[in-house]
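Hey, can you fold this one?
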Amino acid sequence: MDVPNQWPENPPAFRQVLQQFFQASQECALNILEALAIALQLPNSYFTDLHSQQNHAGVFNYYPNISQAPKLGQTRFFEHTDLGSITLLFQDQGGGLEVYTPQGEWITTSFSATFLEKVLEMTAFLVIVSSISQQIAIVMLVYTVIGNLIAIYLTQELNKINQEELELKAEYNYSLTHLRNHAESIAFFQGEKQESNIIQRRFSNVLKNIERKINWERGKEIFNRGYQAIIQIFPFLVLGPLYINGEIDFGQVGQASLATGLFANAMAD
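Sure. Predicted structure:
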């Protein structure tokens, strides 16, 4: 029996937003099926033709946070296996969604779902680019791996500088506090010059650290902008001559450029 969905009146845009989200998820699932067909060297519509009836379902569950752990065997949604070809899984920052492993352990999906999402994104975009030009796909993969390794190095160095900044500021603040609390004894033993040298040296170290931090942040920003610009231009440089010679159309050039940029963004995230 076909029963229509019951929609609440409030909030007013609730139905519209969820329907748009459902439509976008449906299109995403079909795109993944098409990418899998291309990867298996099958006709593009091999899998999507099998889903022509579009018997898709969207389930939205809300689980309020609980103040104490549930009792043994007490769950709000028992372990199960999803039916169908593809499941797109989303959850907010509240957590609580877990996966039951064959070893009998429950693991949170916060990392696994994100990791799977990125793998699917990169696979889909890589397949699209590979179908147009295997040369671009290989170079893009190597380029993004090297670029992300450099980005990781820059981030680690910035983290070290930030940690050093905290230590230097703590030392500088301590020297000021020491001077304030021991002003009489410092004056009695005529240690003003020595204390002044210590404060000036530590303040100078703080300034040098700030300057170093600014330079590293500027360098990282320049690298990120250059990295994104090059990977956007590269497909045009490689496929431009093929387009001029009439071997491919401009739509394939734009498609390769878009997929290349999305692949780099997915890997960087």
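The CA atoms of residues 234 and 244 lie 16 Å apart. Let me know if you want another pass with a different chain boundary.
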